[in-house]
Amino acid sequence: MKLFRHETRQLSEDSKRIYALFEIAHTCVDFGAALCFIIGSVFFFYESLMTPGTWLFLIGSVLFAAKPTLRLIREIKLYRMGDDADLASRLKD
Predict the structure, then answer these.
(1) What pLDDT score does 2 carry?
(2) Which of 25, 39, 38 is nearest to 68 (CA)?
(3) Where does the record place the YrhK domain (predicted)?
(4) Which of 4, 6, 23, 31 is the least crowded, having the fewest Cβ atoms under 10 Å away?
């Protein structure tokens, strides 16, 4: 079994649930990052808000960096679930 395979997302009800939860988390992080960048951009129009704007850009960047991390964690979790199923089927034989 390999990582990032569509089949691992459909192995069981648990794998479907995990996939859906991670997709929701990924979307929330996306919205959070976009919101930080939009507000940070508006803050840059005002000299007094430059420092908070810079912090929002940094937070948005961290959130964007979290996206591939979430996907990798999800895929490893799904991979391990599929691996358990393979091991269980081998024990029956």
Answers:
(1) 61
(2) 25
(3) 21-76
(4) 6
Residue pair 12/88 in contact (Cβ under 8 Å)? The answer is no
Query: How close are the terminal C-alpha atoms of the chain, in Å?
Result: 19
Tens digits of per-residue pLDDT, 79-89?
A: 877 655 554 55
What count of other Cβ atoms lies within 10 Å of the Cβ of residue 38? 12
Distance CA 40, CA 3 (A): 36
At CA 92, angle to CA 87 and CA 93, rounded to 5? 100
Tell me the C-alpha distance between 52 and 9, whole Å: 40
Residue 12 has pLDDT above 80, yes or no: no
Residue 84: what pLDDT? 56
Average pLDDT, the chain: 83
